[in-house]
Amino acid sequence: MEKQQTTINEFVAAKINTLQKREDSYSRATLAKLRRGVGRSPGSMPDIWDFTLGNLLESWLSQSGDPTPFEWAAHISITLFALHQQGKDIRLSPVSVSGGSLGSAVRRLISSRGAESESAIKRRFDTVITSNSAEELAFHLRGLISLIKSEDIPLDYPRLAGDLLRFQFQDQRDKVRLLWGQDYYFNRKREDEISDEE
User: In a 3-state reduction of DSSP, which class is residue 40?
Assistant: First the structure.
């Protein structure tokens, strides 16, 4: 699983890198198309196949017509990246930044919105981490990413793709939940320590 996760991370990183290197008109048009794919099934929109399916390893592709975990991970992360990037210059203000996990982004969201928002945001986070299918995960992530976007908080989308891939395997799901929870609470602990120092 570790090698597959690294490779899905690299796949998503390469797609984002392509958008950052192309001319503005191409990137804007592609991002707009990708945003229309948010909440849809992988493969349901032919005009984004190049970005969500193009260059996936053959062993990752569906043989049955039902999207594979790899196809879901690529589709969800790339389309949510496009949603998050909306309204920002992809070269000057990239929203995909190495290192930031979903758990740490949610903690930053709470810090940005204030302690009184914590319970509402934590409930949204909990609906994401307790999802039981890729469809459910994609649905709940969309709302959370919209909140993260509203506060200009970056997220590591290649890392998210790897997490989403692992999340779809029952024996890996709790490991991803644990990592997100650690990042969520570790950042909270650091904030509390800084607060005490002031």
Answer: coil
The model's pTM is 0.89
Find, among 155, 150, 154, 81, the residue nearest to 113 by Cα.
150
Question: For position 80, what pLDDT does the model report?
Answer: 97
Question: Taking a C-beta distance cutoff of 8 angstroms, is the pair 138, 72 a contact?
Answer: yes
Give kind and range of the element (H or E) at residue 194. helix 170-197
Residue 144 has a CB neighbour count (10 Å cut-off) of: 20
Q: Identify the CATH number of the domain defined by range 2-197.
A: 1.10.520.40
Which SS3 state, helix, strand or coil, does residue 155 take? strand
CA 34 from chain centre, in angstroms, equals 14
Which residues have CB under 8 Å from 68's CB, separation 6+?
A: 60, 61, 62
Which sign does the torsion angle of CA 50, 54, 60, 61 carry?
A: positive
Whose CA is closest to 42, among 180, 168, 127? 168
Q: What are phi and psi of 28, to 5 degrees?
A: -60, -45
Gap between the Cα atoms of 125 and 188, Å rounded: 15
Show Cβ contacts of residue 77 under 8 Å, excluding neighbours closer than 6 positions: 12, 157, 158, 160, 161, 164
Task: Grade residue 196 by pLDDT with cuts at 50, 70 and 90.
Answer: very low
- Compare 55 and 82 and report the one with higher pLDDT: 82
Structure tokens at 66: 């039902």
